[in-house]
Amino acid sequence: MSVRTGRHPGKRLSPLRVLIGVAVVLAVTGAAIVVPWQLSRTAPITTAGAGPHWFGGYFDVTAAPVSEQPNASDASDTVVLAFIVAQSDMSCVPTWGGAYGLRQAGSELDLDRRVDQMRRDGTHVAVSFGGAINTELASACASVPDLMKAYSAVLDRYDITAIDLDLEGENLADTVAAERRADAVAALQQQREAAGGRLDVWVTLPVATDGLTDEGLQAVRTLLRGGVDLAGVNVMTMNYGTDLNRRSLADVSIEALEATHDQLADIYAELRIGLPAEGAWAVLGATPMIGQNDIASEVFTIDDARELNAFARKAKLARLSMWSLNRDRQCGTNYPDLSVVSDACSGVDQAGLSFAGVLANGFDGERLESDDPAPTPFTPVPDDPATSPYPIWSPETSYSAGVRVVWHGYVYSAKWWVTGGPQPDDPIATADQTSWVLVGPVMPDDEPFALPTLPAGTYPEWSETQAFEKGARVMFEGVGYRAKWWTLGDLPSDGITDRDRSPWALIDEE
């Protein structure tokens, strides 16, 4: 018998208290049907269904600027947004990487708008919970109802119908959290099914050359015994940290997959859960870390991607992914040490190819099936400074990289410093030529752009004829500004959009 470990060791609720808690959560979230979470314990899955063969790259939300938008052109019909984690070890509040709350990500990263645009581009969006660092929600939330509420906050905000549970390190070792997670996820699946929807669930686990670790095997058992209808088990074919005997990462990964296949076949037989006709391959996925891995001697090349893809197609693997879409480009000449992992490039020669394109070969014809909501038909909102979430684009204004504007009912983000030039929605400018990236449409519930105002007299009024030293503070049209260097005659308001060359910065940006 395993020893229970976790941040809430031994904390179990009585059946009555749990039922009451679930009912309260469902009332808060507006769910129409109450499904007690314990029912999953007495109604295990008896047959695993075979899903489509799909490819979906992970996209590190907090490592990407707003101007970087994954879409179907990345050869990825599915994008897995990573990672949702708890706000802190003991806080049952979902965040992106511990850095942005859901609302904060909507404003600072424009994530809600970007998700909407991904769907308009034909991309299915899934969300991954967990990851290698920070605390997965199941370890931070003290009860199943609390955990269900936290998961639901993410699912409902982004209309998610497929999730990925990335369990590593302490999050994988926490056996109390594992049971809590299984109970919550199974209950959410039952709720959605009863309401006519679905929730596809993948679990992503570390793997060794001889297959899943004991903790990984136990994680799969716990989810299945808890009544979770697993779409599959995705193994991280990366960072083995052992002597590979000069074999390629593709060869080692194939060995790991074959071992995992046998382990899964045994687990499903042990739990008397039937497998699809394709066997355990139909519930197995692989995720390599493209290019330079965290282990200096481990490098996953384009040739490795070809070999792994060929094996996956032959074995009819259910899923291929990769870490990450953010890294799927060759490093620039100024990046000196390719053995140091970058979150912005792969560290290998890609020969003009993308890892996503190579790995998706043969998988791109079948996307992850789900009940993804169809994008609402969109009629562009007229550009109105009084209601737009960002300033209206003007050819007379200068914009720094990352500054967002509104033009013809859509939001755009500057890729680099730009002034004048073609308008953001220029129909003939290629992706390489345009200075702008489409973020998404102006939404009906967007809050109007507003500058932070200060009480009159807080600072002296700016004067066109007065010189200001570095650090000087002034008021201009009710807004406070700080001089970044000596200046004379430069309008403070230019600093709103030209953050690089204007000598003025908004006071609240300090």
TrEMBL record:
Residues 390-439, 459-507 form the Chitin-binding type-3 domain. The keyword Transmembrane helix applies. The chain crosses the membrane at residues 16-37. Residues 374-383 have a biased composition (Pro residues). The keyword Transmembrane applies. Residues 366-387 are annotated as: Disordered. CDD domains: ChiC_BD, GH18_PF-ChiA-like. InterPro entries: CBM5/12 (IPR003610), CBM_sf_5/12 (IPR036573), GH (IPR017853), GH18_Chitinase (IPR052750). GO terms for biological process: carbohydrate metabolic process. GO terms for molecular function: carbohydrate binding; hydrolase activity, hydrolyzing O-glycosyl compounds. Keywords: Hydrolase, Membrane, Transmembrane, Transmembrane helix. One of its GO terms (cellular component) is extracellular region. PANTHER family: BIFUNCTIONAL CHITINASE/LYSOZYME-RELATED (PTHR42976), GH18 DOMAIN-CONTAINING PROTEIN-RELATED (PTHR42976:SF1). This is Exported chitinase. It comes from Microbacterium keratanolyticum. The lineage of its organism: Bacteria, Bacillati, Actinomycetota, Actinomycetes, Micrococcales.
